[in-house]
Design goal:
The longest helix is centred in the C-terminal third of the chain and has 21 residues. It is built from 4 helices and 2 strands, in the order αβαβαα. Strands 1-2 form a two-stranded parallel sheet. The chain has 98 residues and is mostly helical.
């Protein structure tokens, strides 16, 4: 599921297996609402938050506030850029139409 915070808070969408955060939610409540989409009615899922080095520091702070063990992985730029460009090329026309 890729959605805004409005969707994260307002709708109960069944069978969400994964949530990808493209913008980093620094507020614990907002973060929990977003990733909570994967844990409805005892279901399990995966939440991935994409962030840059600066936001990674915020992720560590969020980790402490939530008292959770969040796994972090660093992806090399050479792998990120092609994916970013593909997403950008796909979304730009859609955003321009809106």
């Amino acid at each position: 599921m890729i959605a805004t915070d409005l969707i994260a808070r307002g709708l109960d969408i069944p069978n969400v297996k994964a949530v990808i955060n493209f913008s980093f939610p620094t507020e614990p409540k907002r973060f929990l609402h977003r990733i909570g989409r994967t844990a409805r009615a005892g279901q399990h899922g995966v939440a991935i938050t994409l962030c840059n080095e600066e936001e990674r520091k915020e992720l560590k702070k969020l980790n402490r506030k939530l008292n959770q063990n969040l796994n972090t992985f660093t992806v090399q730029q050479k792998f990120v850029e092609p994916i970013f460009l593909k997403i950008k090329d796909t979304l730009d026309p859609i955003v321009n139409d809106i």
